[in-house]
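Quick one, probably user error.
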C-alpha cells in the first residue's frame, strides 16, 4: 500500500451526496441535508441528502416496479451472474478509493479497511454470483401418480439497514444474496458511514444492474428507517446493529404487513484462555487485536477475556504489553495500528463505561482515556479492566469500543457458566491444547460462532449469526440465500 496514493485520495474534495432512486441521483424532496463530520479530525467532509418518509416511499415504489416488471428477477441466472461479477470487478478496481472514502467517514484504520471493506465486499458479491446458478428446486418423494415440486422464488422488495462500522462488508452480506436471488433492494446506510456505500451502489449501475433494482436512501433512522419498517410494500427487513433498533423493526413489522425481520444484533463475546493454551504469547496478541482492532467497533469483538486463574496475572500482563504496543492515531497513516472512534457520542459512551467499571470495583490496568485530543478527532486508548465480576455492567452490556473486561475462572464448568451469563450469544473463542476439552466447550458455549485457538477470520463459506439477544439473522454462506427466497409447492396430479 502506498502512503502517497492514500494522501492524494484523502485530499480530494467530496461533493454533496444524493439519494439514489430508480438509477438517478436525487436530492431529498424537501431539500434537507445532513453534515458529515470526519472522526479523523472532527472537520466537515460533505453533506448527505437527509431523506424523508416520502423519499423512502419513492425508493420502495421504484424497487417494487423493478421487481414486478422482471427487469432483474426474470433475467436468467447466468445473466444476473455476469452483472454481479462485473460489479465485484469494479469494486476491486476502485478498492483504494472506496477504502479511503470509508475511512474518512468512519475512522477504521486503512490497513484493516482495505481488506475488510472493498476486499471483503468484492469477495462476497463474487461468492453469491458464483452460487446463484447452482440453486436448485426439489422433487418431493410422492406417490407415483403425483408430482410434487418445490420452487425457490425471490421475495420481492428487501429493505436493508447497514451499520457504520463496516458498511461495505456488511452491506455486501445483505446485497449479495438478496440480489443473487432476484430481489430488488432499498438500502439505508448509517448516518455516520454512508459515503462508500453510495459509491458502491453507483458502481453497481455501471456494472449493468438495472435502475430501480438497488436504491439508496440516506437520512435519520428515526425517519427513513421507520418509513421502511412500516411500509406495506417491503417484504423483508435485514438489519445489523443494536438490539434497541432491532426491537423497533420487529414492532414495525407487526404494525404493518408482518414482513420478515432478520436481525444480527449485539454481542458481549467471551474469549476463554485455559492454562494449557498451546501458545500463550500468540493468544495474548490475538486477544488484544480481538478487541482493539477498529477501536473495538466490531460486532464479534472479544470484549470479555476469561482467563484460568493459574495464569491470570501473567496472561493479563502479556495482553497489556500487546495493547500498549498499538499505535493509535490518524487511520489514514500507515504507521498507525488503530484508528478513530466513529463519533463524539460513541466516544463519550465508551468513557462512561470506564467510569462505571471503576465505580463497580474494576481496576483500570491500562488506557481508559481519550487521547490525541489535539487532532480534533475521536480517539481512545486501548483499555483493559481487571476484576470484572460476571454480573458487572462491563461484563453484561455491549460497549462497542476499545474496552476489555477481564474475569478469572477456575474450571471448564466455571468458564462456561460465566461465558453464558449474558443475554447475548454472537461469538466466542477458546484456547486449549486439549482436543477433548475443545469439543466439550464448543458444545457448552451458547454462541453462533466458536473460535478455537484463534479469533476471527472466518470467510464466506460459513454462516455468521447469533443466539439469544444477538438476533436471528445469519449472514454469509449458502445458508444466507434462504432468507431471500420463498418456497412454492406445485402439486401435480399425473
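Nope, works fine. Designed sequence:
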Amino acid at each position: 500500500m502506498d502512503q502517497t496514493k492514500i494522501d492524494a485520495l484523502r485530499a480530494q474534495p467530496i461533493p454533496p451526496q444524493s439519494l439514489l432512486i430508480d438509477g438517478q441521483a436525487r436530492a431529498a424532496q424537501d431539500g434537507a441535508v445532513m453534515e458529515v463530520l470526519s472522526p479523523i479530525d472532527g472537520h466537515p467532509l460533505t453533506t448527505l441528502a437527509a431523506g424523508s418518509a416520502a423519499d423512502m416511499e419513492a425508493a420502495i415504489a421504484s424497487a417494487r416496479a423493478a421487481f414486478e416488471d422482471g427487469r432483474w428477477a426474470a433475467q436468467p441466472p447466468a445473466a444476473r451472474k455476469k452483472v454481479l461479477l462485473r460489479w465485484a470487478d469494479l469494486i476491486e478496481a476502485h478498492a483504494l478509493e472506496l477504502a479511503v472514502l470509508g475511512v474518512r467517514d468512519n475512522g477504521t484504520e486503512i490497513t484493516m479497511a482495505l481488506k475488510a471493506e472493498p476486499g471483503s465486499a468484492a469477495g462476497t458479491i463474487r461468492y453469491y454470483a458464483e452460487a446463484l446458478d447452482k440453486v436448485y428446486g426439489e422433487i418431493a418423494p410422492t406417490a407415483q401418480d403425483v408430482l410434487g415440486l418445490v420452487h425457490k422464488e425471490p421475495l420481492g422488495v428487501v429493505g436493508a439497514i447497514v451499520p457504520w462500522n463496516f458498511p461495505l462488508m456488511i452491506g455486501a452480506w445483505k446485497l449479495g444474496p438478496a440480489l443473487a436471488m432476484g430481489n430488488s433492494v432499498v438500502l439505508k446506510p448509517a448516518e455516520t458511514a454512508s459515503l462508500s456505500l453510495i459509491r458502491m451502489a453507483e458502481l453497481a449501475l455501471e456494472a449493468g444492474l438495472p435502475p430501480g433494482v438497488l436504491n439508496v436512501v440516506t437520512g435519520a433512522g428515526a425517519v427513513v428507517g421507520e418509513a421502511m419498517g412500516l411500509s406495506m410494500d417491503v417484504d423483508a427487513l435485514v438489519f445489523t446493529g443494536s438490539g434497541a433498533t432491532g426491537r423497533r423493526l420487529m414492532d414495525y413489522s407487526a404494525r404493518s404487513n408482518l414482513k420478515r425481520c432478520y436481525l444480527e444484533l449485539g454481542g458481549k463475546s467471551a474469549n476463554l484462555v485455559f492454562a494449557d493454551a498451546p501458545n500463550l504469547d500468540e493468544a495474548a496478541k490475538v486477544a488484544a487485536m480481538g478487541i482493539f482492532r477498529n477501536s473495538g467497533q466490531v460486532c464479534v469483538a472479544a470484549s470479555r477475556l476469561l482467563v484460568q486463574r493459574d495464569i491470570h496475572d501473567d496472561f493479563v500482563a502479556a495482553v497489556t504489553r500487546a495493547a500498549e504496543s498499538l499505535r493509535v492515531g490518524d487511520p489514514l497513516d500507515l504507521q498507525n495500528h488503530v484508528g478513530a472512534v466513529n463519533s463524539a457520542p460513541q466516544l463519550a459512551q465508551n468513557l462512561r463505561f470506564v467510569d462505571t467499571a471503576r465505580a463497580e470495583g474494576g481496576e483500570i490496568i491500562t488506557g481508559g482515556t481519550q487521547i490525541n485530543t489535539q487532532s480534533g478527532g475521536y480517539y481512545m486508548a486501548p483499555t483493559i479492566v481487571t476484576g470484572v465480576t460476571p454480573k458487572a455492567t462491563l461484563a453484561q452490556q455491549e460497549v462497542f469500543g476499545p474496552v476489555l473486561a477481564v474475569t478469572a475462572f477456575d474450571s471448564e464448568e466455571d468458564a462456561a457458566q460465566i461465558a453464558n451469563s449474558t443475554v447475548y450469544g454472537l461469538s466466542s473463542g477458546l484456547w486449549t491444547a486439549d482436543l477433548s476439552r475443545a469439543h466439550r466447550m464448543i458444545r457448552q458455549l451458547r454462541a453462533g460462532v466458536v473460535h478455537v485457538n484463534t479469533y476471527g477470520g472466518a470467510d464466506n463459506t460459513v454462516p455468521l449469526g447469533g443466539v439469544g439477544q444477538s438476533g436471528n439473522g445469519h449472514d454469509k454462506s449458502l445458508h444466507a440465500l434462504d432468507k431471500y427466497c420463498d418456497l412454492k409447492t406445485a402439486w401435480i396430479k399425473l
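Residues 263 and 473 are 4 Å apart (CA to CA).
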